[in-house]
């Protein structure tokens, strides 16, 4: 564990807590894309399939449970909570998740670190699922970014949520750079490229978020 | 974490 990865995990945790805070306290999910939240639930479910079979550390297991629990409870709130669901604007949240999930699944089958299409063993299945979750996480924010472009007024909590979500992966990139220079054989092109793509998708959001912070004006994304 | 692999990452 290094400071970049710890900061990345804490930033990721904070983004989830900001969203849960918004939904749980003001009972509103205005401006939040349910499609993105559902994609994140799929990301965590496919990434942490081995949560009970491969134990790493108490921290690792606790964080996995928090991410799984929070992502599924956010989806539950937005779908079924009688007050929260009323503030979900489904007409603005029109991105079709399958056009993201299918290419990621195909890509995970074609391009993964195990290349050799060995016997279809459980470990290969887990690895394909893990790679799928990596690709899916890179694009999962797209429905949310599309929705932000449409909903003119972005409230502070939503802006902070998206910012923290983008910042966590940027910190992970620093973590990978650090591990590359401090550990031997630490080369993971697939993870690095998908992490980079993920962070670059936030580039314009970061720009407008910084501008709104610098000029102390409301965050507005150009149409 | 064992050297070089990503298993310990979230």
TrEMBL record, chain A:
<keyword id="KW-1133">Transmembrane helix</keyword>
<dbReference type="GO" id="GO:0046923">
    <property type="term" value="F:ER retention sequence binding"/>
</dbReference>
<feature type="transmembrane region" description="Helical">
    <location>
        <begin position="55"/>
        <end position="77"/>
    </location>
</feature>
<keyword id="KW-0931">ER-Golgi transport</keyword>
<feature type="signal peptide">
    <location>
        <begin position="1"/>
        <end position="28"/>
    </location>
</feature>
<protein>
    <recommendedName>
        <fullName>ER lumen protein-retaining receptor</fullName>
    </recommendedName>
</protein>
<keyword id="KW-0472">Membrane</keyword>
<dbReference type="Pfam" id="PF00810">
    <property type="entry name" value="ER_lumen_recept"/>
</dbReference>
<feature type="transmembrane region" description="Helical">
    <location>
        <begin position="123"/>
        <end position="146"/>
    </location>
</feature>
<keyword id="KW-0653">Protein transport</keyword>
<dbReference type="GO" id="GO:0015031">
    <property type="term" value="P:protein transport"/>
</dbReference>
<keyword id="KW-0813">Transport</keyword>
<comment type="similarity">
    <text>Belongs to the ERD2 family.</text>
</comment>
<dbReference type="GO" id="GO:0016192">
    <property type="term" value="P:vesicle-mediated transport"/>
</dbReference>
<feature type="transmembrane region" description="Helical">
    <location>
        <begin position="189"/>
        <end position="210"/>
    </location>
</feature>
<feature type="transmembrane region" description="Helical">
    <location>
        <begin position="98"/>
        <end position="117"/>
    </location>
</feature>
<dbReference type="InterPro" id="IPR000133">
    <property type="entry name" value="ER_ret_rcpt"/>
</dbReference>
<keyword id="KW-0675">Receptor</keyword>
<keyword id="KW-0256">Endoplasmic reticulum</keyword>
<keyword id="KW-0732">Signal</keyword>
<keyword id="KW-0812">Transmembrane</keyword>
<dbReference type="GO" id="GO:0005789">
    <property type="term" value="C:endoplasmic reticulum membrane"/>
</dbReference>
<feature type="transmembrane region" description="Helical">
    <location>
        <begin position="158"/>
        <end position="177"/>
    </location>
</feature>
<dbReference type="GO" id="GO:0006621">
    <property type="term" value="P:protein retention in ER lumen"/>
</dbReference>
